Amino acid sequence: MDEHCDQGCQNLRWALALLDGLVAGGMRHLVFSPGSRSTPLLLAAQRQTSLTLTPILDERSAAFFALGLARAAGHPVGLLCTSGSALAHWFPAVIEAYESEIPLILLSADRPPELRGWGANQTIDQTRLFGGFVREFHDPGPAESGAAALKMMRTLGARVAAVSLGNWPGPVHINLPFREPLVPTAECSAESNPPLSLNRNSGHKTTLASSEQSWGEDIDVWTRDLTAMMSGRGLICCGPGTFSPVGESLAPLGFAEALWKCSEQLAVPVLCDPLSGLRFGADSTHRITRYDSFLRHPATAAALKPDWVLRIGRAPVSKTLLNWLADIPTILVDPGQGWSDPNKDVRVRVNADASSFCLWLATLAQDVMDKQTHADWSAQWTAIEQQCAQLTANYLAQAPWCEAHLLTTLLAHLPADDGLFCANSMPIRQLDTWSGGRSAPLGIFGNRGASGIDGQTSTLAGLNASGIPITGVLGDLSFFHDLSGLLLLRQLQRPCIVLNNGGGRIFDYLPQRGLPDFERLWRTPIDLDCGALLHPFGIAHCAVTNGDEFQAALRECVNPSEHQSSGVIEVRIDAELSRRVHYEFWQHIQASQSI
Amino acid sequence: MDEHCDQGCQNLRWALALLDGLVAGGMRHLVFSPGSRSTPLLLAAQRQTSLTLTPILDERSAAFFALGLARAAGHPVGLLCTSGSALAHWFPAVIEAYESEIPLILLSADRPPELRGWGANQTIDQTRLFGGFVREFHDPGPAESGAAALKMMRTLGARVAAVSLGNWPGPVHINLPFREPLVPTAECSAESNPPLSLNRNSGHKTTLASSEQSWGEDIDVWTRDLTAMMSGRGLICCGPGTFSPVGESLAPLGFAEALWKCSEQLAVPVLCDPLSGLRFGADSTHRITRYDSFLRHPATAAALKPDWVLRIGRAPVSKTLLNWLADIPTILVDPGQGWSDPNKDVRVRVNADASSFCLWLATLAQDVMDKQTHADWSAQWTAIEQQCAQLTANYLAQAPWCEAHLLTTLLAHLPADDGLFCANSMPIRQLDTWSGGRSAPLGIFGNRGASGIDGQTSTLAGLNASGIPITGVLGDLSFFHDLSGLLLLRQLQRPCIVLNNGGGRIFDYLPQRGLPDFERLWRTPIDLDCGALLHPFGIAHCAVTNGDEFQAALRECVNPSEHQSSGVIEVRIDAELSRRVHYEFWQHIQASQSI
């Protein structure tokens, strides 16, 4: 691609990428009203051979026409107009589409952000103009160049087309600001570059549990294409999420059982996020938990690259894993409205109950896939997981006591069917790295929706109020951030463990480390005596600095006597030592791992 | 009024009241599109003789017609349509009106709340349909009967008309749900009942500082009407607010000087809220501060009722005062967008700089008003203020030590130009009752925007960061609500005084007192040792229980030595005793006061 094309050409490539995605997602008609600012999109539409263009002068009439067309055709229909009040004329039809669940793709051209709110002509605030009457709103900003930007636009197109056809069909709105010039000054070599083959199915509504199909796509065709996509070496990655809400699944098996059955039939490994609910409980040789460690080894990472990944739930906690997954064609299973695809690699999104889908896939694999081809592949993953577990154990046996030992001890100590809440920032990442798996069930909880360090103490108190005994692991900054939560910690059945390492130590692992005034502006330690702080709240406290003390504290705090409540175990961590241990461990893995 | 009229009649009265207000506010045209749900408003419009009705089939066309009419006529023009997508057709014209600052009154009929979101026909979510493109949005709910409800609707009409013509003219939206039947089944005696005479001016934009006039009303007519309204016995009530922002006023005098000059010329008392900035600083015989005490005396309250009140700023802290002001014709001065009128008594709203308006009024009074007529009136207020101050002093001299003595001591002790922050719930009300006035300036601060008990400690820390030494007075519940704020209290120049009376004692004065489980569900005391709590934060603490101890603590805490920071003075209050003192005091005033 010519990176040095002019603004007009850049606008055109940008618009073309979006339309590629929309067409792949099933859009076949674009109804437009004349205007100037919408020119790049119209130029791009001209280059889409499978797109029918219909000009209608009045935007209101255009919108009702598109509504009728989409209603009868069962495909999403695009609407295009210029900036200003033009798109407001769509509003009545948008409301009708919202209520009648008709897939409309609203493409409004806009002036660039630097002109909005500064009195420029025909410039209004178009963002979220239709309020709650669209299923999604996007404003991707002015055109950018580069492969990643164009990939994002293609994926955005496929996504909104899919959303418009999803389990709650309806209008979606993309607001598209363009900078001038709007027409390429020279010949522009921009070409249509549709997403991978299966994209045309990505808008598919597949409610497998009820076998219901809408928008009239043929399940056999879809299945054949999916099977083709999954013919190479693949893996399942299960992220944070609750996949078998009690009483809501129609599948005959629980999620974990269905998943292990599926991985067995497909002969693929399952990478289990700490918040997937899969690390603790019934074992499987397919369960992989130590990827964050062994994928840091470049040779291992390269050797294990799959041809496809089936992702279930939200993106995983491990950034190592997420980065490694980039550019691998992805099937995403999500029963709700989530569109978890930060890498923009989803080719097929399955909007279905995860248990039902896994069982369906297991049956499919039994019938049509040749699992023997991939037995080696699966065995290779199992071997490296075991090797990594052994290397980790060997390394920790001789390393100074730190969070790794603490978590290992804790996991060995907690009764079956207990819960563990890991706060954000370091604790959940530490758990991810060191937990491994165990056969006794243990519920893992974390606030990964927005991943803040706020409200962690109060959340722990709320979790405990469920009746399940839940141990907390929090960093000192999280703990001090939610001081009002201390009022709620009086009735704990299990300890709240505070890893006191003197401030936000996650920054020690990030590029901010070493910036001027680093301690005061990023690490921000809070100088408070934890024991003295807790005393007036009547919360028991003990401070420990090594493994023996921690084990002793744990024995006392887990299952406190009838008349006592569990308290806070403050673990004083030598953060610098801990940091050295982590980096040494990663070097150790790189030096010792063989594949 | 017949309170037993049917639903249709009730709808009609409701709609009529709204239109009365709109007509009084200057609306002369109503453009409507046919529909059923809007029937009550159309029936009401037929009874307004000064209203021209124009039917236009297409709502979009109707909206642009109204836009043109309002643009040329310079008066607000009403738009009326039925429920469903009908009002969405207005959107393009609404956007144009928003940008061009044209006064449109958008009246959308709606289904009642019980039908919204439950699949009823022609029912969509009409609330805030135009997002940020209207100046105000109101949804007053289905029609109610009774004088207070109708007064509210009349005032709402006058208000939105005024807002549409305000210092930022533009569209306003009132969504009006109606229950069936929409037509009165019998003869309905509902009549037009316009607001008091001056209402027709209430939409007036009066930027006195710049002598600017828009929407072409004659300032002489307006002044004559205002003067007529102020011919009886009046008073000024100055509520919470900052009326002379530094560098923003165009008036030659500061607000307090301008106000005292105005009260002098008008010969009227000024009731000064604790947050008005008028209680402490240059004295005036017109300054009244003890109204919350003496207006509890029924005979006094009746004898002092004025014919009009000029209100400046937000509604006063004193509920006694606010209730006493109900039904008194009110002139409201507000330089901003506030429309502080919980009693719905505002007849004229002056959207002007408060200092400039006071000076203008002082000149006007000098020229055209006869202040001698009201000299007795003013002297009567001064006398009762002085009498109440003496009665209060006499009473407190023999009463057990409580918050009243504490505040009196504190105000006598604080250096001039210091600040005092009173938290919500009890402290600000105690200050209101006991402060009186003093000639040395003292800045009073409080969070009365939403009047929460949240964030009070953090607010105090922020106030102190301004460089002004500011003492805080907080209740124990506020103090314990914002525990995270303790991290910010390390560098105080003045003490933070915590009135620890064991929970939310304001409920002891409210009807909730005595309900089952009152202590646990309303008073909600927090059982924390304040000293132990503060120790780990490095905040000094002392606990006092009487006047001598408090004075000693105050001497130490105000102006701490260079290397020390001021700390927390915890005042342990016997809440039951305090409550008895308050009730006894009010009885004492009622028994002793003479008028």
TrEMBL record, chains A, B:
EC number: 2.2.1.9
Catalytic activity: isochorismate + 2-oxoglutarate + H(+) = 5-enolpyruvoyl-6-hydroxy-2-succinyl-cyclohex-3-ene-1-carboxylate + CO2
Thiamine pyrophosphate enzyme N-terminal TPP-binding domain span: 17-128
SUPFAM superfamilies attached to this UniProt entry: DHS-like NAD/FAD-binding domain, Thiamin diphosphate-binding fold (THDP-binding)
Pathway: Quinol/quinone metabolism; 1,4-dihydroxy-2-naphthoate biosynthesis; 1,4-dihydroxy-2-naphthoate from chorismate: step 2/7; Quinol/quinone metabolism; menaquinone biosynthesis
Cofactor(s) this protein cannot do without: thiamine diphosphate; Mg(2+); Mn(2+)
Pfam families found in the cross-reference section: TPP_enzyme_N
Coiled-coil stretches noted in the UniProt entry, renumbered to this chain: none
GO molecular function: 2-succinyl-5-enolpyruvyl-6-hydroxy-3-cyclohexene-1-carboxylic-acid synthase activity; magnesium ion binding; manganese ion binding; thiamine pyrophosphate binding
Gene Ontology biological process terms, A to Z: menaquinone biosynthetic process
Record region (Disordered): 192-211
Cofactor binding remark: Binds 1 thiamine pyrophosphate per subunit.
Swiss-Prot/TrEMBL keywords: Magnesium, Manganese, Menaquinone biosynthesis, Metal-binding, Thiamine pyrophosphate, Transferase
Keyword Transferase: yes
Assigned protein family: Belongs to the TPP enzyme family. MenD subfamily.
The protein's assembly and partners: Homodimer.
Stored PANTHER family: 2-SUCCINYL-5-ENOLPYRUVYL-6-HYDROXY-3-CYCLOHEXENE-1-CARBOXYLATE SYNTHASE, PROTEIN PHYLLO, CHLOROPLASTIC
Cited function: Catalyzes the thiamine diphosphate-dependent decarboxylation of 2-oxoglutarate and the subsequent addition of the resulting succinic semialdehyde-thiamine pyrophosphate anion to isochorismate to yield 2-succinyl-5-enolpyruvyl-6-hydroxy-3-cyclohexene-1-carboxylate (SEPHCHC).
Protein name: 2-succinyl-5-enolpyruvyl-6-hydroxy-3-cyclohexene-1-carboxylate synthase
Species this chain originates from: Chromatium okenii
